[in-house]
Amino acid sequence: DHCFYQGHAAEIPNSVVTLSTCSGLRGLLQLENVSYGIEPLVSSATYEHIVYQIKDNKIDFSPIAENYSTTQLTDKSYKIFVKSE
């Protein structure tokens, strides 16, 4: 199965995107010196995922999602390009 992907964000120098679709969408995004994780919500019956910021190797849920249902939007958009390994 080809379920591991690695790539970069368009127009973001030195960005790294690593994703797995083996059991839900999981991955790590390094964008402009900020790291984000994405993974499925275990408690969700509708395949929702959480995106969270990683600071100093510690997970910080507060800037990205609140109570797993309200998403904070930012004014930046990224185009993510991935390639199958």
UniProtKB/TrEMBL annotation:
Gene Ontology terms: cellular component: plasma membrane
GO biological processes: binding of sperm to zona pellucida; cell adhesion; male gonad development
Protein name as catalogued: Uncharacterized protein
